[in-house]
Amino acid sequence: RRTIKRRGPQTVAELAVAELAVGTRLVQLGAFDTGEIARAEWDRLAARFPEYFADRPRVVEEATSGGQAFFRLRAAGFDDLAGARRVCAVLVAQGAACIPVTVR
Question: Does 68 have pLDDT greater than 60?
């Protein structure tokens, strides 16, 4: 677990996907060209929806598809799929991208 201090009073815990057990529920908030862009999007979403991001760990996962690298931005800290779906329903209704996912 890495704890990253960001501007302002909020500290964001960031987990590596390798630290998460198979079956862990997450929400995916987007895929970005760099980890830095993904983290900046987290900051933007956390400022817009503080009640859904406060105390929730961030997961930035590097992946490849078709030979292209990208970075998935995900949030952890859900007890079950229903909790992840509830948060995504709120975010999507407000125009944000959000998909419930499960660590495999």
Answer: yes
